[in-house]
Design a protein that fits this description.
Strand order of the largest sheet: 1-2-3-5-4
Number of strands: 5
Number of domains: 2
Radius of gyration: 55 Å
Number of helices: 4
Low-confidence stretches: 209-214
Strand content: 15-25%
Helix content: 40-55%
Order of helices and strands: HHEEHEHEE
Length: 214
C-alpha cells in the first residue's frame, strides 16, 4: 500500500504559561480601561461640582459686595449727618440767647426799673430805655458775672434833679460789684420836668474788680 504523506504543517501548540500571561494581560487591560473610565467620570463629576460651588461662591461674593456698598453708603450718610449735627451744635452754642438776656436784665436790676424798649446785639451790647420805679436801683452782682450781656447803654428816666444825683450815686456804688465801668454819656430835662440820663455800663467778668469814677 502506498504511504500517505501529510503536507500540512502542524501548528505548534503554545505553552500554557504564555496563554495564561496573554489572558491575564487582556483582562488587566480591560480592568485598567474600566478603572480609567470610572475615574474619568468621577473626576468630571467632581469638576462639575467644584464649578457649581465656585459659581455659587461668586454669586455670594457679588451679593456681599452689594450689601457692603449699601452699608458704606449708610455709614457715609451717617458720618455726614454726624458732622452736620456737630456743626449745628457749635452754631447753637455760639448763638446769642436773646430770651435769656432779657430775663437777665430783669434780674440784674431786680425789677427796680421798668423797661420801655430794648435792643440786644449778638455781641451782647444792650440798648435800652427804662423808668426808675423803685426808690433805690438794685444790681445783682452774681448775675453780672454769669450773663452773656457785655455792655448796657441805659436811657433812664428819673423824677427830678435830686433823684438825678441819687441815681448817679446809686449806680456808682456798684462799680467793682458787678460793674467795671459806669459813666454818664448824656442827660436832658424833659418838658414834663423829668430827667433822662444815658448811662454806659460795662459788666464785670470773673476776676475783674476795678472801677472807674463817673
Amino acid at each position: 500500500m502506498p504511504t500517505k504523506i501529510n503536507l500540512l504543517l502542524k501548528k505548534k501548540e503554545q505553552p500554557k504559561e504564555i496563554k495564561k500571561a496573554k489572558s491575564f494581560l487582556i483582562r488587566g487591560t480591560l480592568v485598567l480601561m474600566l478603572l480609567l473610565v470610572v475615574a474619568s467620570a468621577g473626576i468630571y463629576g467632581y469638576v462639575v461640582y467644584l464649578t457649581q460651588i465656585s459659581t455659587k461662591l461668586a454669586a455670594m461674593i457679588v451679593d456681599l459686595d452689594s450689601q457692603i456698598a449699601q452699608y458704606q453708603d449708610i455709614e457715609e450718610k451717617k458720618s455726614i449727618l454726624t458732622i452736620k449735627t456737630g456743626e449745628l451744635r457749635k452754631l447753637y452754642g455760639k448763638r446769642f440767647d436773646y430770651l435769656t438776656a432779657l430775663s437777665d436784665l430783669d434780674i440784674l436790676f431786680g425789677h427796680s426799673i421798668a423797661i420801655d424798649s430794648v435792643a440786644i446785639s449778638e455781641s451782647g451790647v444792650v440798648q435800652m430805655s427804662a423808668k426808675k420805679i423803685a426808690e433805690v436801683i438794685t444790681f445783682a452782682e452774681e448775675q453780672a458775672f454769669s450773663t452773656k450781656i457785655q455792655e448796657i447803654n441805659l436811657k433812664l428816666e428819673v423824677g427830678n434833679s435830686s433823684e438825678f444825683q441819687e441815681t448817679v450815686d446809686n449806680l456808682k456804688s456798684f462799680q467793682g460789684k458787678g460793674l467795671s465801668e459806669a459813666s454818664v454819656l448824656s442827660s436832658e430835662l424833659t418838658e414834663t420836668g423829668t430827667f433822662n440820663i444815658v448811662f454806659h455800663l460795662v459788666l464785670a467778668k470773673t476776676g475783674e474788680s476795678g472801677a472807674q469814677s463817673l
